[in-house]
Write a structure and sequence with these properties.
The structure holds 2 protein chains of 2 kinds.
Chain A lengths: L1 H25 L4 H17 L2 H9 L1 H4 L3 H18 L1 H7 L5 H17 L5
Helix pairs in contact in A: 2-5, 5-6
Chain B lengths: L11 H13 L2 H33 L3 H22 L1 H9 L1 H4 L2 H14 L5 H8 L5 H21 L2
Classes of the chains: A mainly alpha, B mainly alpha.
C-alpha cells in the first residue's frame, strides 16, 4: 500500500510532465500556454469528478502538477455552490487553493528581497 | 519604428536546406527531453508524496489535509532553489519535469519578481510577480467559475 502510492505517484506525475514536454517540443505552444492549458484541463476533469479519483490513485503524482490547481479551484467553487448557490461560486473559488497562492506570494516576495537576480 | 527588412525570395537550394534543417533539428532531443521530463517530474512528485506522508505522520492529518502544507513546502523549495540560482540549471535538463509541478509555479513567480526587482519593490516585485504565473490563475479561475456556475444552476 505504502510503496504502491509512491510508484503510482512517480508514474502519473512523470507521465503528466512527459506529455507536457512532448506538447512543448512538437507544437509551437510556449510553456505559458501549456501550463494554462493543463490548469484548464485539470479544472474540467475536476468538474466531472475524474481528477479526484486520480488523486486517490496517484497521490502527489496528481496533486503536485499544476493541473491540480485547476481541480482544487473547481472543487472549492462547487462545494460552496452546493451550499450557497451562485454566490458560493464566488466565495468558494479560492477556499482550497489559498495555500498555494499565499505561499507563492509570501515566499516569492521574501526570496526576491533576500536574493539578487543572476546575470 | 524601424521597418522590417524586405524578405528576399528563397532560392531552391535554400528552401531545400531549410526543409532538411526542420526535419533534422528537433528529433534527436525529442526522446531525451521526454524521458528526462518523465523521470524528473516523477521524482518531484515522489518527493511531494514523501512530504505529504511526513505531514500525515507528524501532525496526524488526513491525506486531503496534508496536501496543502505539502504544496506550500514544495513552493518554498521551488522558490528557494530559484533564488539560489539552482533551479534554472536543473530546469535546463528537466524541462517540463520541473515546470509542470507546483515547483514551476513557484519558479515563475520568483523569477519574475527577481527580474523586475530593479524597478522597485512596489512597481517591480509587487506588480510583476505574477507576470508568468498570472495566466495560470486567470484561466484556472475562469474555468472554475463556469463549471461552478453550471453546478449552481443545474444541480443546486
Amino acid at each position: 500500500m505504502e510503496a504502491k502510492i509512491y510508484l503510482f505517484s512517480f508514474l502519473v506525475g512523470g507521465l503528466i510532465c512527459m506529455a507536457a514536454q512532448l506538447v512543448l517540443d512538437l507544437t509551437r505552444f510556449t510553456p505559458g500556454h501549456v501550463l494554462a492549458g493543463l490548469t484548464v484541463l485539470g479544472g474540467i476533469l475536476g468538474g466531472f469528478g475524474i481528477y479526484d479519483s486520480l488523486v486517490d490513485f496517484a497521490g502527489a503524482g496528481a496533486t503536485m502538477p499544476i493541473s491540480s490547481f485547476g481541480n482544487t479551484l473547481v472543487k472549492g467553487a462547487i462545494s460552496e455552490a452546493q451550499k450557497h448557490g451562485v454566490i458560493g461560486v464566488l466565495t468558494g473559488m479560492f477556499e482550497l487553493t489559498s495555500t498555494g497562492i499565499t505561499a507563492a506570494i509570501v515566499f516569492g516576495f521574501l526570496t526576491a528581497i533576500i536574493f539578487h537576480p543572476k546575470g | 519604428m524601424a521597418r522590417a527588412p524586405k524578405k528576399k525570395p528563397l532560392t531552391t537550394t535554400q528552401k531545400r536546406y531549410q526543409e532538411k534543417v526542420r526535419k533534422l533539428q528537433p528529433r534527436p532531443t525529442l526522446f531525451r527531453n521526454a524521458i528526462l521530463a518523465f523521470i524528473t517530474g516523477g521524482i518531484v512528485c515522489v518527493i511531494g508524496q514523501f512530504i505529504t506522508d511526513l505531514y500525515k505522520m507528524l501532525l496526524g492529518l488526513s491525506s486531503a489535509e496534508a496536501g496543502n502544507p505539502a504544496v506550500a513546502t514544495m513552493i518554498f523549495i521551488g522558490a528557494l532553489l530559484t533564488g539560489l540560482g539552482v533551479f534554472d540549471n536543473l530546469a535546463k535538463y528537466a524541462g517540463a519535469g520541473l515546470a509542470v509541478p507546483v515547483t514551476g509555479f513557484a519558479n515563475s513567480v520568483v523569477s519574475s519578481a527577481l527580474e523586475f526587482k530593479r524597478e522597485g519593490l512596489v512597481l517591480g516585485v509587487g506588480s510583476k510577480m505574477f507576470m508568468l504565473a498570472g495566466s495560470v490563475i486567470t484561466f484556472g479561475v475562469v474555468t472554475a467559475f463556469f463549471i461552478g456556475l453550471i453546478y449552481a444552476i443545474f444541480i443546486y
